[in-house]
Design goal:
By secondary structure, the protein is mainly alpha-helical. It folds into 2 domains: about 10-105, no CATH class; about 105-475, no CATH class. Helix content is about 70%, strand content about 0%. It has 22 helices and 2 strands. The chain has helices at about 1-5, 10-30, 35-50, 50-65, 80-100, 105-110, 110-130, 135-155, 155-160, 160-190, 195-200, 210-230, 235-255, 255-275, 280-295, 320-325, 330-345, 360-365, 390-395, 400-420, 425-445, 455-480; strands at about 65-70, 75-80. Helix 12 (about 210-230) packs parallel to helix 14. Its main location: membrane. This is O-antigen ligase-related domain-containing protein.
Length: about 500
């Protein structure tokens, strides 16, 4: 192929110039910037064909820096450049598997986490088939497919040596830090206003929740990098210590309660893994949630917590926001309860198959309790349940919710086993970092549904894939350390 390109170099160059000029002309006529991306897309496709590992590093770098754009009259949207790159990686995955069906290693398929992800995907297909909104559900299935191909499957072939893990850290860390610095500066110019945080994050993130969630997931990685920098020089240690303080300040000024809880929970998971207690965390959490729901549902006790319109409103400072949360007078908290009630009631009509992905918004309002209506219940932004468990329940049925609950439990249980199986300090730290990032995403998604967004979803599935890789590495390392069981006894 390289010889063919070299032989026809002038023709290829001429074709490239003509294509570039044509795209510029179409852009000038239509005003649509997507046409300018065509030459770069083709260039990246060629790169992917010859060196797709480099293509993955470009994708990873693009995740934090990507932005959402709308076209066709704001009826469709995509994030660029990461989502088009994911489309190419999906195509690459299909080609690789078609050319060599056994290219995916057996240890990957045998892993329990892989089995859960496959079960989730198969059940998603069932839910899409019976969806009440088929076209929107197919769009959801397509997005899930290229997410899994790019960040769950492809990383298995990428992360082979320690240098790959280090490179991945810098490729995520550098663009994220640049974006955080920009947002922090813009917010500082606005006086760190609680009400204007949305203005500061505009264009770079969906909203301050998306921003704070991404920060809370990257923060543990920086803390682990600080730990690994021990013995690497005073400058590097000081640099990471400064970044920890900077990111902590950025999370605080993002004014998102879930992100603060996510950071706390990630360090709780760290301690639980370290002392072999993590297997108690999720069962205790699930038992607590079941108790709360059962208590609230008995004799309709939840009605006693309905909001008072005179005292439930948006607040002008984060302190007032927190105080109102504990008093039950915060409008966002009350709106969550309003949606949760609607989701639970709605799920009773489709308890197994669900209503279909992307269906909640179109059907939930008749199922809500009007006693919990707030000033924002009109929902012009078309947001959903604000809880990923309930989103799975209502849109994909009880099996999907149970599989997600099982995935979270299995992930932390495996992370604990892998951490203690590894003897290498570097890989132990990587295992802890992956577990802490996943923990932060879990808490944020308990109060939102962000796994389908490009920044959060990519890191979520990357964490699962990396833990599977770390699991395999720990088993290989363990086998090398153990004496051969079949060795013949010495002759006397």
């Amino acid at each position: 192929m390289l010889a063919l390109l070299d032989k026809n170099a002038k023709t290829v160059q001429l074709a490239g110039i003509v294509l570039l000029m044509l795209c510029v002309a179409v852009f000038g006529f239509s005003g649509n910037p997507l046409f300018l991306a065509v030459p770069f897309g083709l260039l990246f496709a060629f790169l992917l064909f010859f060196n797709w590992k480099t293509g993955f590093w470009i994708l990873l770098f693009s995740v934090p820096a990507s932005i959402q754009i709308w076209f066709l009259g704001d009826s469709l949207s995509t994030s660029v450049p990461d989502e088009p790159i994911m489309w190419l990686f999906l195509l690459l995955s299909v080609v690789l598997i078609a050319a060599k069906p056994k290219i995916i290693p057996e240890w990957f398929w045998r892993n329990g986490l892989t089995m859960i992800i496959v079960a989730q995907y198969l059940w998603l297909i069932v839910s899409v088939i019976y969806s009440h909104v088929p076209l929107l559900s197919l769009k959801f299935l397509a997005a899930k497919t290229w997410f899994l191909a790019s960040f769950f499957l492809i990383p298995v072939f990428i992360f082979r040596e320690k240098k790959d893990w280090i490179k991945a850290f810098w490729l995520l860390f550098i663009p994220t830090t640049i974006l955080v610095t920009i947002v922090f500066y813009k917010h500082w110019r606005l006086g760190f206003s609680f009400e204007l945080i949305q203005v500061a994050v505009r264009y770079l993130f969906y909203n301050h929740v998306d921003y704070s969630t991404f920060l809370s997931m990257i923060f543990p990685v920086i803390c682990v990098a600080f730990y690994l920098s021990r013995g690497k020089g005073l400058f590097l240690r000081t640099f990471f210590l400064f970044l920890i303080a900077f990111y902590a300040a950025a999370i605080h000024f993002a004014y998102a309660r879930a992100a603060v809880l996510a950071v706390i929970f990630s360090f709780t998971i760290m301690a639980a893994i370290r002392f072999r207690l993590v297997n108690w965390i999720m069962p205790a959490f699930y038992a607590f949630i079941i108790f709360i729901v059962s208590y609230a549902a008995t004799n309709n006790r939840y009605i006693d917590y309905r909001p008072d319109f005179r005292n439930t409103y948006m607040h002008k400072s984060f302190k007032e926001h927190l105080i109102a949360t504990f008093k039950g007078r915060d409008i966002s908290s009350m709106e969550r309860i309003y949606r949760w009630i609607g989701a639970v009631r709605m799920s009773t009509d489709e308890p197994v198959k669900g209503w279909g992905p992307n269906s909640f918004y179109f059907y939930y309002k008749p199922y809500t309790n009007t006693s919990f209506v707030t000033y924002v219940s009109r929902n012009p932004e078309r947001s959903t349940t604000h809880n990923y468990f309930l989103l799975m329940l209502v849109e994909q049925g009880a099996p999907a919710m149970l599989l997600y609950a099982l995935l979270v439990f299995a992930f932390f249980a495996k992370a604990q086993r892998v951490f203690h199986r590894h003897k290498d300090r570097f890989y132990k730290a990587c295992t802890m970092a992956v577990a802490m990032v996943f923990a932060a995403s879990f808490v944020n998604n308990f109060f939102s549904e962000l796994i389908e967004t490009h920044k959060i979803g990519s890191i979520f599935y990357l964490c699962i894939s990396l833990l599977i890789v770390l699991d395999h590495k720990s088993r290989v390392s363990q086998q090398k350390e153990e004496p051969e069981a079949t060795a013949a006894p010495p002759k006397i």
